[in-house]
Structures are given as C-alpha cells and as structure tokens.
Amino acid sequence: MPVDETRGGEPTVRDAISAPDAEGRPRRTTRRFPLFTKDTARPEGGGRAAPGDAPAPARQWPMLVVLSTVALGLLLTALDVFRIGMLVVGAALLAGAILRWVLPSVGMLAVRSRFTDIVTYGILGVVIVLLGLMAQPNPWLRIPFVKGILHFTISR
Fold it and tell me: Reduced to 3 states, what is the DSSP secondary structure of residue 126?
C-alpha cells in the first residue's frame, strides 16, 4: 500500500504517480508530480566528483577550483591590479563552464541543467573578460561602436 499514515495521521505518498483520495486510499493520477513533494531532484551531474570515501574537499574539487580562482582574481582586484584580476575572474567562470561540459559529475558546481549552467557560466565569463579588457584608462580592447553608443547616450 503506497500510503503510510503512521506519521501523525498525515498521509505520506511513496509512489511517484499515486495520491491519496478523500478517504486516504491511494489512487492513480496523471503523470504529473506527486501531490506531496518531499524532496527536490539533484541537477544532472550534481553527484560527487570523487568517490564517497574521499574527504569532502576532494569530492567538490571542481567547485573549489572555480571558487579559489575567483578569490584570487578578487584579491588581485583589491590589490590595484584591476584588469588582471577581472581577467582571472572571467577565466575562472569560463573554466567552470568547461568543467561542467567535460566532466560527468561536478558536485556543487552543478546548479541547474547542464545546458543552462554552461550557458550561464560562459556568458558571464565572456562579459567579465570583455569588461576587463575594455576598462579605462588605456583599454586593451577598443570596440568602435561602444564609444558611439556611450557618446550618444551621454550627450543627450
């Protein structure tokens, strides 16, 4: 019987496609999610990146690599090496996108679906790198239409 009423009289559904009726008996419903949700699904690739008997930092090494690289970039930014720091932060996000694409299990680096994570990390990484390259004074990258857009918006 898929319904267990031993928890304080409240029905618990153990079958993914059954729900209790008014009298507490299980009945088959649609293929939609169950009436009582007890847990959320882990994102694909959200399993451990190392075996379960490994210490916690080793199981989450992809996330630690990205976070430590971002921390290094922010430290460089705080030490007045702004451009290099931002390039390191952007490179860390691009590395996170590559790790998410290449590795089957990346631990806590997996937040959403694989496609969404790759697109999010990739776009944010590219934008941060571009902003770091175009930062004033003396930008390393000059995009002509950006100056025209800024001049148009500021002059009005």
Answer: helix
CB atoms within 10 A of CB 34: 15
Q: What is the pTM of this model?
A: 0.66
Q: Measuring CA to CA, how many Å separate 144 from each of 64, 140, 147?
A: 38, 13, 6
Residue 135 tokens read as 């930062």
Of 97, 94, 88, which is closest to residue 70 (Cα–Cα)? 88
Q: What is the pLDDT of residues 23-63, one digit of tens each?
A: 766 666 555 655 666 666 667 677 777 777 777 777 888 99
65-70, Cβ contacts within 8 angstroms, sequence gap of 24 or more? 65/95, 65/99, 66/92, 66/93, 66/95, 66/96, 66/99, 66/109, 69/95
**Crossing angle of the two packed helices 114-134 and 82-102, in degrees rounded to 10:** 160
Angle formed at CA 120 by CA 117 and CA 123, multiple of 5 degrees? 140
**Locate tokens 């944010």: which residue?**
124
Closest residue by Cα to residue 131 from 66, 59, 77, 58:
77
Q: Please, are residues 87 and 132 in contact by the beta-carbon 8 Å criterion?
A: yes
Bridge-based pairing state of the strands 12-13 and 3-4: antiparallel
